[in-house]
Amino acid sequence: MILKKTKLKLATPYGYFNDEQEYVILRPDTPKPWINYLSNREYHALVSQTGGGFSYYKDSKCHRILHWEDHKSDRPGRYLFIRDPKTNDVWTPNWQPLRKRLEQWQAKHGFGYSSIFSVEKGVETQLTYFVPPQDPCEIWVVTLRNLKDHDRNVSLFPYVHWLCGDYYLERDYKNILTLYNEAYYDETLQAIVAFKHPTSSRHFETYGFFASSVEPSGYELNYEKFVGKYGSLSDPRMLRKGESCSNEPLRGEEMIGVMEIPIHFRARQELTIVFVLGFTENKNQISEIIKRNIKPMDAKQHLQKTKVFWKHKLDSIKVETPDSEFDLMTNKWGKYQLLQITRWRSASYYSPGEGGRGFRDTAQDVEGAISIDPYLSREWLEKLLTYQYQSGHAVAGFSEIEGPWEIGTDKGILGKSDVAVWIPFMVSAYLKETGERSFLDLEIPYLDQGKGTVWEHCVKAMDHFWESRGEKGLPLFWKAEWNDALDRCGIKGKGESPWLAMAYCRALLQVEELAHFIGDETQAQVMRERYDEMKKNINEKAWDGDWYTGIFTDEGKVLGSKTCEEGKIYLNPQSWAVLSQVAPEIRAARCLKSVEAYLDTKFGPALHWPPYESYDPTVGRITAFAPGTKENAAIFSHAAAFLVVAYAMQKKGKKAYELFSKIAPYNPEKTLQIYQTEPYVYAEYCYGLGNPRLGLGAFNWNTGTAAWMFMAATQWIVGVRPTFEGLMIDPCVPSEWESFLIQRPFRGAVYEIHFKNPNRVESGVKEIFVDGKRIEGNILPVLAPGKVYKIEVVMGSV
Ligand code: GLC
């Protein structure tokens, strides 16, 4: 064990990490909703500290279960109203939607569950939400305790607001969509069943259900009857007035699911009640799903299983360094974020409507998750390849239910130009992790016609970019590359992207390496020749003097050049000049220096500088965003994470580590007043210079940052990278790190790698011992599976 030198950032007025690494939230009115993802393969729930948020089944657009307003109000949610019939007191342990001060309140987000604790009027409530590993449902386990020394009665009213349909249709045509609603109470199931009648615009026959472990004395399905005419959820009339539920089935009205559960408490008694909220395409399954989950003993067991599932997943790769916060993000919360979004990329709190998922986003999640969960990654990798065209190009994204986005973009105007460049990165990472050479021979269909092996998919991607070069010999920009918001500068098919040229170069190197691996020397040579030529083009056409140029537009303008007033320098072409090994040494040093001179802030580097001030139709929506937000010069964590890797490739350990710490939510500059978003996951971006809200965190959870930060921490800073032959040891750390370790499962064995840094260097390996025996070089061989090996690495020069 290594002595911890840093303490976790504890106890802000809003919360802290406890010993189980749960995030404990001390007040319900956090500056923004602080949320958790609860999911299994079919069901996904986004839940805030007050139980706010929505759930969906398989696809966030097609099968939205719950209605939800937005992140500003964070309402409605999964509420439990409690009413004391004697005093007429009404409260919710959630705090929302009544927002009455409670005697005691605390919430916790853990791995796979969230819970809310409250004490009010002598009733202690523990309300835990989770999604069990197997069934398409979420479970609410409610434990109530009567703190009084006498018997008493209370009534519980669990509450959900159904959508049960297509998110977009509902939003745009609510007046019509409501008329399709139907809900009823089913006595045998002891559950409310709710659904929308299918139509040609939404043909799915699906059912929502909400069951209780205790028989309700009544139920209400009609929103208006519950809140009252002109009423609101802040003060539902039915509860205020102590009215009875109508117990009427519903047709063609705004539908909710409320049950009245009468509780008779003895003095000091504790009771557990379970509610199961689920969704299915098969009505006959409702009863089974409820039966498997509704009994308190079973529900608690499923909760335990869920916790074990996550513990097991998160135990996979572990680092132990002198920085506990770095360890916590790498081992737990960042990894958890990465695995959750690899499963579910389709909706977030900030863009609740999108169905499906972006190709490039998923590809990066997959690459990042391979070392933690190769099975999950493999499944997505195979799926992604089915969205690639014969030509090598791939679609921007897809919904598993509604199919590809932008169908037909392969003919004529392309969609996002970079999509296929991400293919070799995942394939190569998968092969290096697993050593499964035969994966390259697996045949996978193309989106339009025919099929090809995984290897052919990679080669086609590389051919595609070679064939779609512009006048300068760089890949065409089309509608977007990594930067989605430059959506007008290449639509005429002339604009070219130096960044994409670099990403292509990086991919060419990886495909060349794969070709050598399988002995296809002809292809290896093709890749090398293209690499050399592309590298030459980049250095001849896109070097601006002190940094690499941003974009050449359709109109012949250059963005990201010293000649520009706004958007003089872009970040990505600098970091990727290093990642692609395109920049000669002097240029690499120079462009990274320019990044520091022009882009650096205390929260990380801006995406470009200066921000754009007004809309330019020849550039794109990037110029319309408020300065310092989103792609218009925000501090984009994902792009900053590319730079961490670039620093590590340049052997700048201190810089890589410092930047990592800036991007992380625990950066001490990210005070709650400034940063506001969840302190336990990566944000997509922080507001940048040029914006009065500099440092405000935005668009949390769904970001490629989680994947890149995990790779940066484990593969580039601690520096243990899979190769075809074994594990490469290449640490790049701050020189103060005297010792650190990583526990790294690899091809069935566990490598426990202890690093010593007696000369306080930032990089370099002097010697390596495997179970006490010195080995040559810095690649640990593939060792026999089923054992733990102790590796000692001494840093320094050879
Ligand atoms: C968002 C998108 C990602 C894109 C980035 C920059 O994070 O999900 O695909 O690369 O914005 O535009």
Walk me through what this model shows.
It contains 19 helices and 41 strands. Helix 8 runs antiparallel to helix 9 (374-385). It has 798 residues and is an alpha+beta fold. A hairpin with a 2-residue loop joins strand 10 and strand 11. The strands form ten sheets. It has an eleven-stranded antiparallel beta sheet with strand order 1-2-9-10-11-12-20-16-15-14-18, with helices on one face. Strands 6, 7, 8, 13, 17 and 19 form a six-stranded antiparallel beta sheet that branches. It has a six-stranded mixed beta sheet with strand order 21-36-37-41-38-39. The protein is globular, with a radius of gyration of 28 Å. The longest helix has 21 residues, at 498-518. It starts with 14 loop residues before the first strand and ends with a strand. The structure holds alpha-D-glucopyranose.
Write a compact overview of the structure shown.
With 798 residues, the protein is α+β, with helices and mostly antiparallel strands. 28% of the residues lie in helices and 25% in strands.
SS-based class = alpha+beta
Weakly predicted, low-confidence segments: 1-5
Strand content: 25-35%
Strand order of the largest sheet: 1-2-9-10-11-12-20-16-15-14-18
Average pLDDT for all residues:
96
* DSSP helix fraction: 25-40%
Shape: globular
The radius of gyration computed from the alpha-carbon positions, rounded to a whole number of angstroms, is 28 Å
Distance between the termini: 27 Å
Which compounds are bound in this model? alpha-D-glucopyranose
